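Replying to the earlier thread about multi-chain prediction with a worked example.

Input:
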Amino acid sequence: MNKRIINFGKFETASVLINALIVKVLLGLPQLLCKQAGNAAWMIALISGMVFLALVLVIMRLYKRFPNRNIISIAEEAGGAALKWFVAVLIILPLIFKGAITLRLSAETINLITPYRIPSFLTAVLVGIAIIAVAYKGTEGAVRLHAIFVPLIVTALALVIIASCASFKLTNIFPVWGLGKKEVIKTSLYAILMYSDIIYILLLYPYVKSEKVFRRAVGWGTVLAVIIQLAIMLGYVLTTQYPGSGELFMPVYQVSRIIRLGDNSQSIEAIFYPVWISSSLLYLTLTQTFVVEILGQASKTKYEKLFIVPTLAVMFVIAYMPKSVTQAMQISQKASPILFICTVALPILVMIFAYIKNRRASYET
Amino acid sequence: MKRRLFAAMLIAVIATSLGGCRYSHEITEMAYAVALGLDKEEDGIAVSVQFAKPLSISGGSGGESSGGSSEKGEEDGAKNKNTTVLTVKGKDIFTALTAAENNLSKEINLSHVKLLLFSQDIAQEGIADYVKQFMKSNQFSPNTYTAISLCKAEEYMKTANPSLEINPAKYYTLIFSNNDNNYMPSTTLRELYFNLSANGEGEVLPVANLSNDESNEKSKSGEDGYFAGQLSVGGENKADVSGMAILSGGKLKQVLSTKDALYYHMLTGKLREIYILIPSVKEEGEHITLRLTQDEKPKLCADELGETPKLSAKICLMGELVKCPDSDFNELGIDGLNELASRYIEGQITDFLENTQNESKADVTGFGEISKMHFSDWNDWTLYNWQDKFINSEFSVTANVNISREGLVYTG
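Result:
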C-alpha cells in the first residue's frame, strides 16, 4: 500500500465515476430499456438512478470504517490470504468480462459508424495498443486521462441533446407508463444490476487525497452521472418514437445523426465519433489498470506490469468469443446479475464481515 | 533517454504501418449519388441512381462524366447536364446497387443522397421493407427526403432540369425541405420509418410528377387545388412536386391535391405565409384574397374517446386583406370578413379530415398522438385499436381568422 502516494482530487475521482456510468448509455442502454419498457425508459433511468444513489450512500457509510484501504486490503484484513484471493478473483473476472464486452462493442461500433471498412478485429487491436500504452502509465495515467476527456465527453453529450431539441416530440413520452407499471418496475430492478461499476469506488479510495474529498467526489460524481443518464434517456425518448426506439443501434449516435444546423453542416455526427470512441477507451484503460493492480496486490509482486499483456490477451479472447455483437450484448445482459453479485454484493458482505470482526476484536481487547 | 527513443520508434512504426493507404478512398474515385428512385419491374425492382457530375457543377470541362465517358448511364437521355442517371434491375436495392457499381469505374457513394423516390406502383405494394433497408444502412442519412412519384422514378430523375440551381443535391434539398412551401409536406427517411412503425398513424409524403402541358386537359392554374403534374408551368423543367400522398401501413392509399396539403399544414401547425381566395358573398365570380399566417400552434384535442371518438381542432390565423370587392367590405366590415373567412376555412378543414378519414382511413394529422395521452400504458392503447376507432370519429373544427392588417392602402 505504500506505493499509493498519488493524490487524486474531487475532479479526477468524479470523472472516473461519471465515465464508468455513462459508457453503457453511449453503447446501447437506451435502446435496451426502450425495448423492455417502451417509452417509459426515461423513468427507469430516474428510478434506478435513485436506488443507485441510495446504494452508494450505504457503501460510503460502510467504507468510512476502512480509511485508505481498497476492497482487497479489507478482505485480507478480514479473512487473510484466502479471502483476499477469493475476493480478488471474483472481482477480476467480472472486470475482465465487462472490459471484453466493452472492447467488442466499441470495436464493432467504430467499425459500423465510420465510413472506413477496416476489419473490426484490427480496430480492436488499435484499441488494445492504446490500452497497453495507458496501462504502463498505471492508475495515475488512466485517471488523469479521465480528467482531461470526461469534461469533453459531457460537453459533447450536452451539445447533442441541445442541438436535437428541434426534433423533440412531447407526445413521445405518452402513454406515460410505457409497456406497463409492472414492466417499468421490473426493468428498473434489472437496470440496477447494470450499476456494477460501483466497484471502481472501492478500488479508487486509497488514491484520493482525503476521506472528505472522496465522499464529496463520489457524491457529486454519482449525482452528475445519474443526471446525464436521465438527460440522455429523455432526449432519446423525445426524439425517437416507440416502438422504433427499441430497434436503433447505438442510440446516442443515432440522435446525433438527426442534428441539422443549416444546409451547409450535414453529417454533423462525424464530430462526435472521437467522443464515443474516447469514452469506451477510457473505460477500457481503467478496467485494465485495475485488473493489473488487483493482481499485483494479491500476488504482492513488484512486477505487476507483467500482467498487462496477458490480461489484455484474455480480454481479447473473451471479446471475440461471441459470434456476433448481438450475441455479445445478450451474454452481457444474462451475466449482469452475476456481475452485480461479484462487484456490489460481495464487497458489501466483505466490508460487513470485516466490520464485525474488527468490532469483536476491539471488544476482546 | 532509452525509453524516449523506444517510444519514438514505436510511434514511427505504428504511424508508418497503420497509416497506410490500404483502406483509403480518394474523392476522385467516388461516384456521388444525389437521388435514388425505385420502380416496379415484372421480376423485381428497377433502382435508378442519379449521380452528380462534380466537374460539370464546378464549371469545369462541361459535362465530363463522373464515371468515365464510355460507361453506361452516360447517354441516358438526362436533360440535366450536371447529372447522369443509371438504372439497374434487380430483386433487391443493394444487389442492384452492387450490379450498378460493376458498370462504373468509380465506387458509388450514397452518403450525399438527398432524395429517395418511390414510384406509385412500388408504393401501392408497400414501401416499409425498403424504408427499413435504407435505415439499416449507415450510408444513407436519416435526413434524406422521401417522395412518391406518380410517373416512373427514373423518368422523373431524368427530366428534372433545374434552371436556377446547378447543384442537383442543393436543388433537391431546396425543393423537398419545404422551407416555404405550403403545397407539399416534407418527410425525411427517419420520420417515415418511425411513422411506419407507429400504431395507427398514417404517413404523408410529397408527390412528384412530370407536367405535360400539351396533352393534359386537366391543366390548372395556381389558385385552384391541383395534383402533381397538372399545373401549367412554362419553362424547361417539367418536374413538378405538388400535393401529398397518404400511406397507411406503408401502402399508398390516396393522392391529394395542393389544397389538401395546405389544410394539412394548417392542422399540423406548419403553415407558412399563404394567399387564399374566398368566394365573394355579394358579387358572383369575384373573390376576396387574404394573406394568412399561423402564429399560434393549432390545438388538437381528443374530447371523448369511446366507440365514436370526438376530436376537435382549433386553428388561429392572422390575416391581411389583400383584395376585397367594395360591396363585400362595406356590407360585412372587418368583423364580417373575419367570420366569413373563419367559416370558410372550417368547412375546408372538415372536408379534408373527412376525406382522409373515409378514403385512406388514416390519421395523418396526429389526433392519435393526442389521444394516446389518455391511456396509462401501451397495452391499453393497443387494445383500444385507434386505427379502427379513428374511422368512426367525429370532427369539430373551430377556425379563428383575425384580419388585423390591410396592407399599405386602405380597402373601401
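Chain B touches chain A at residues 14, 18, 23, 25, 111, 138, 141-143, 170, 173, 177, 190, 193-195, 197-199, 366, 369-370, 372-373, 375-381 (CB under 8 Å).

Feel free to reuse this layout for your own posts.
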